[in-house]
Design brief:
Layout (H helix, E strand, L loop, with lengths): L1 H19 L10 H11 L2 H7 L7 E2 L10 E5 L29 H7 L2 H17 L4 E3 L22 H16 L4 E7 L11 E4 L2 H8 L1 H8 L5 E4 L3 E2 L2 E2 L4 H11 L5 E4 L8 H5 L27 H8 L6 H16 L14 H14 L1 E5 L19 E5 L24 H9 L4 E5 L9 E2 L2 E2 L10 H13 L3 E7 L22 H11 L3 E6 L14 E5 L6 H9 L21 H4 L6 E10 L2 E9 L8 H7 L16 E3 L3 E2 L3 E2 L5 E9 L5 E11 L10 E10 L4 E8 L6 E3 L4 E3 L3 E10 L2 E10 L1
Parallel strand pairs: 2-3, 3-4, 4-6, 5-19, 6-9, 11-12, 11-15, 15-16, 16-17, 22-30
Antiparallel strand pairs: 1-2, 7-8, 10-17, 13-14, 18-19, 20-23, 21-23, 23-26, 24-25, 24-29, 27-28, 29-30
Helix pairs in contact: 2-12, 4-13, 5-6, 5-13, 6-8, 13-17, 14-17, 15-16
The structure holds beta-D-glucopyranose.
Beta-D-glucopyranose binds next to loops.
Length: 755
């Protein structure tokens, strides 16, 4: 009996203990109930603390309640090195070197959502292992001008392609309980004057070209955070842009996550009502204000608290911000089911190599002489000596370029990758050809490479040409690099031309040896004045840890190239709408100015006069011939397209059409082809681009194999945004569906009518 009473009392004790588990810690409760419970336990000061940084990359949770901090990291190509608490400089840890994945231009060039999922899952695992809450990426700003220094961090010029490619990245990362932070929302399409540019464009262009990838990342990918950009829109900073943050993102798109400021993008108390939730980086150096805790003086810090206490704001906005941040923490750091992640695993290294090789684009591949075979792939049974020329064959590219700079555990250089693959089968010799930028340091991370070479430019060319005369094949590996005014944050390129004297080197090499392959390592198109005299050209990208191996895979034919350009390769800036019709880099607005640390700074209005006509849309409208069009990319095999057929000649507004086309591998190697579908509105009330990408599929075909590739289109593929109706409209009439291998290589067209 006594035993039984004791048991009942003990049980009652247990139930009381269970009943006392606070709702916010109860995993069985819906997340919004937990958020409300946590919120009502927090003091004003705790709420304020949560909305702004406490260090360069972290912000507080609620220590008293056991709610963990938020830790952010760049992004988007690998997990950034740990930095000092208050500084950009690396902290000097020895356990933070990582796997560097290919740049996002390369990912976009795979045109393969499965590669994007692999990328997201892998980089997410690294972020998780490094205990990060938020990965600052991916970037989806549109490639409006080839001069933008940060295009390498984005997914190209087309809103449909970047939308399809961003969604799996987000899902892959977040499956690790790590949030993505899609950036830079919105219209951060140039680095020049990035803090004080005010793009001027119509609502339709905004909706059709610049917002779709963000919308897809939020609505389809479910990204838990987004980063507002440095620039302005409608004369308002993005960090306090009621229209883009509150109306479009939060209300229209239903975003329930956190708007994080780009580092230092907040400029005044307008951020309170303007839609910013979490303020980071307002001081370049966290202590420079001279205050005891400089973070207290962030706009969303003590000034915000005092403004609430004075009655200038209610706590409505603060509670909304905290709800969002709590939701983020419950989804990430307080999700007990999230995996543990992994770092530098074999799987990650192999993912980096695979994605790299699948994104490399074979731009041109001809026979250097009559009756000779095409120059690539390199046939090692017939090659005795390979000459590699060019700085980018030996220069580390994971260091530099701005916030995406990395400390990679290893980086296989192109020359080393080629040597390793060739082994004893042939001799591989190297000549520098030109000296570009021999430095290699970013925020304290050093490459340790000594790339100095004191020969004159003439001597370097003469030495390369002498070696070329005795080589069976010459591989010139150049392009851009991560130095200022190239592919780097904070400034734009100053020209479309290749830097240094690379054009001279290439021209001289082409004269010395007809078996010349030019390989451009870059995240942007470059001018190619020598394009006709070089038989083979490869667009290589910043490929990260496995750069040299991925390139060797393609050069030797171990991987059949299947990448396609995610942007137009303009022959000159005269083919780019932003430069011909627009007023890049803008003009000073006489009526408004910015103030940075007490200094007056002009605001540049930048007119996007080209409107919808970005990239191939402009090329089509003006009937131009770029060096290589959007969507272009060759293979070592050949594909034949049959006639496209359509299941329905007439559909209603809610109807669908399915277009099918047979594609055959007519060569002797297995290979992958990206079948592209463009839609053309034959008559339309509003002006529309001649055609727009609305579907694509990457298929694998064995030699001789045929596949019927089908695409289903509904009204979303036919619509335009009507500013006056503030709605997407699919106008009745005739539509053509153009199926092809690039934007300039349409193989078959079918027609239907929308009623
Ligand atoms: C960049 C962001 C980056 C942040 C933190 C900013 O300067 O624009 O892309 O995530 O710094 O490093």
């Amino acid at each position: 009996m006594r035993k039984a009473i004791f048991f009942i009392v003990a049980l009652m004790g247990m139930t009381t203990a269970v009943a006392q588990t606070p709702v916010y810690l109860d995993q069985t409760k819906p997340i919004n109930d937990r958020v409300e419970d946590a919120l009502q336990r927090m003091t004003l000061r705790e709420k304020i603390n949560m909305t702004h940084a406490q260090s360069k990359f972290s912000s507080p949770g609620v220590p008293r309640l056991g709610i963990p901090e938020v830790w952010c990291t760049d992004g988007p190509h690998g997990i950034r090195t740990e930095v000092l608490w208050d500084e950009w400089d690396q902290a000097g840890w020895t356990n933070d070197s990582i796997t560097a994945f290919p740049a996002l231009t390369c990912l976009a060039a795979t045109w393969d959502p499965e590669m994007s999922m692999l990328y997201g899952k892998s980089i997410g695992e690294e972020a998780r292992f490094r205990n990060k809450t938020v990965l600052l990426g991916p970037g989806v700003n549109i490639y409006r001008t080839p001069l933008n220094g940060r295009n390498f961090e984005y997914m190209g010029e087309d809103p449909f392609l970047s939308s399809r490619m961003v969604v799996p990245y987000v899902k892959g990362v977040q499956s690790n309980g790590v949030a993505t932070c899609v950036k830079h929302y919105a219209l951060n399409n140039n680095e020049l004057n990035r803090n004080n540019t005010n793009p001027i464009l119509d609502e339709r262009t905004l909706r059709e070209i610049y917002l779709p990838a963000f919308k897809a990342a939020i609505q389809e990918g479910g990204s838990w955070t987004i980063m507002c950009s440095y620039n302005l829109y409608g004369g308002k900073w993005l960090s306090e842009n009621d229209y883009l943050l509150n109306q479009v993102l939060k209300k229209e798109w239903g975003f329930d996550g956190v708007v994080i400021s780009d580092w230092g993008a907040a400029h005044n108390m307008g951020v309170v009502k303007g839609g910013l939730d979490l303020e980071y980086g307002s001081w370049t150096n966290g202590l420079s204000g001279g205050a005891k805790n400089a973070y207290d003086s962030y706009y969303l810090g003590v000034p915000y608290m005092e403004a609430i206490q004075k009655g200038e704001f209610t706590t409505d906005e603060l509670n909304d911000k905290c709800r969002r941040i709590l939701r983020l923490i419950f989804r990430t750091g307080m999700n007990p089911n999230r995996p543990f992640g992994s770092l530098n695993s074999e799987a990650h290294v192999s993912a980096a190599r695979t994605i790299g090789a699948n994104g490399i684009v074979l731009l041109k591949n001809e026979a250097p002489a009559k009756k000779a075979p095409k120059l690539l792939p390199i046939d090692l049974t017939k090659t005795k000596k390979i000459l590699v020329v060019g700085e980018n064959a030996i220069k580390m590219m994971t260091v530099g370029g701005g916030s995406s700079s990395l400390k990679a555990q290893h980086e296989i250089l192109p020359l080393d990758g080629i040597k390793a693959r060739v082994g004893n089968a042939a001799e591989v010799v190297f000549e520098r050809g030109y000296v570009g930028d021999a430095s290699g340091e970013y925020n304290g991370v050093v490459t340790g490479q000594n790339l100095k070479d004191d020969r004159t430019a003439e001597q370097l060319i003469a030495d390369a040409c002498a070696a070329a005369k005795t080589a069976d094949i010459v591989l010139f590996i150049g392009g851009l690099n991560k130095s200022d005014h190239q592919d780097a944050e904070g400034a734009d390129r100053e020209q479309l031309a290749l830097p240094y004297n690379q054009n001279d080197v290439i021209t001289a090499l082409a004269a010395a040896n007809k078996n010349l392959v030019v390989i451009t390592v870059s995240g942007n198109a470059v001018e190619m004045p020598w394009v006709k005299s070089v038989p083979a050209i490869i667009q290589d990208w910043y490929l990260g840890s496995e750069a040299g191996n991925s390139l060797a895979d393609v050069l030797m034919g171990d991987v059949n190239p299947s990448g396609k350009l995610p942007f137009t390769y303009y022959a000159s800036l005269d083919q780019c709408g932003a430069h011909v019709e627009g007023d890049y880099p803008g003009t000073v607005n006489p009526n408004i100015h910015a103030e940075f640390f007490g200094n007056k700074v002009p605001i540049y209005d930048m007119k996007y006069n080209e409107g919808l006509f970005v990239g191939y849309r402009y090329i089509d409208a003006k009937k131009l011939q770029p060096t290589f069009p959007f969507g272009h990319g060759l293979s070592y095999t050949t594909f034949a397209y049959g006639k496209a057929t359509i299941d329905n000649k007439e559909i209603s507004q809610d109807g669908k059409v399915t277009v099918t086309i047979p594609v055959t591998n007519t060569g002797s190697r297995e290979g992958k082809e990206v079948v592209q579908v463009y839609v053309q509105d034959v008559q339309s009330t509003l002006v529309r681009p001649e055609k727009e990408l609305k579907a694509f599929q990457k298929i694998n075909l064995k030699p001789g194999e045929t596949k019927n590739v089908s695409f289903t289109l509904d009204k979303t593929a036919l619509s335009y945004y009507d500013d006056t109706k503030k709605a997407w409209v699919a106008e009745s009439g005739t539509f053509n569906v153009l199926v092809g291998a690039s934007s300039k290589d349409i193989k078959s067209t079918v027609t239907f009518v929308l009623k």
